[in-house]
Amino acid sequence: MLFKEIIGQNEIKARLLRSVNEARISHAQLFLGPQGSGSLALAVAYAQYICCSNKKEDDSCGTCSSCIKYNKLIHPDLHFVYPVALSKDVRVSTDVAIEWRQAFLDNPYITLFNWFEQLEAENKQAVIGVEESGEILRKLSLTTYESDYKIMIIWQADKMNAASANKLLKILEEPPDKTLFLLVCESEDQLLRTILSRTQLIKIPKLTDEDITKALIERNKISPETADSTAHLADGNYAEALLLINENENAAQNLASFQKLMRASLKFDPKAVLTWIDDVSATGRERQKNFLKYALHIMRESLMISYADTSLIKLGIEEEEFVKKFSPFIHANNVERFIEELNKAYFHMERNANTKILFMDLAFKFNELLNLPKPI
Hints:
The protein is of the alpha/beta class. The chain folds into 3 domains: 3-203, P-loop containing nucleotide triphosphate hydrolases (Rossmann fold), CATH 3.40.50; 207-246; 248-370. 55% of the residues lie in helices and 7% in strands. The protein has 17 helices and 5 strands. Strands 2-3-4-1-5 form a 5-stranded parallel beta sheet, sandwiched between helices. Helix 13 (270-281) packs across helix 17.
């Protein structure tokens, strides 16, 4: 992965290049950026630049032996860790290494949802388990094969369970010589404080609408008008922009599901609520979490329609039509509670809560909140 292949993020690229050219490479770094910002792609490009044997001032050469292997993710001194769905056959990342290489090469802006769809494991919990930590320690105990550095990239580092994270604390603090940890994470809230304190933080911002528009025109060959409206809806998330272009069906499903839940909750129709719960419980856990994120998005846009500049709204045509009708139900007396309940549901979903109980509780809470009177 070359830096020039990464969308935008010029300030971050310059910072990473300086750290290598000035020999100030920290042994443990945390690439913290929202989904679709390119944090994983930046980590891979950074690792490639460090190992390139014919570096340019602003990028890897792309043609040396090291770069060729990096371009295929087969460099012997590059190691990846990522969440998996634990099973009898899959215990650690290397058990699905072929699938991972293909997934990243197909889309360097891959999301956890995309990854678990590819694994056909949507109904399972994403986790980096304690066995993975043992595998990390084993790999890093080996000598380097070709490069000066052994590099370990841990994607979605916040998915490490407590036992796994605690097992890595010592090696993060005192790694073997010429060993580099690059942790990639979307939310620092889920990461152990002890992990955070042992890493150099690199904050990666959302992409600008201009950067996404340019990328969509150049890479996806779509019209400037479509690219511009898609970038606006994506809100700095290139992965979301690709989803909007290539998979509108998922957004339509989320909208339909949200409409059914709100209608069933408003007057609390038990039969409709139970039918909705059965339908949503049949989908995978990652898709359920994706729905909760979508619901938070709709709440935000509903509030924007009621209280802010409508030019800030990021909705598709069908979504906007629905939200204009739904927005009167979202107001100052209930919006904080709505957001709190959705975030709480997402938190418990991450911790393997019973789906049917969780969504039934949410429907009861929504019935109460939808019927709260607007402030005078």
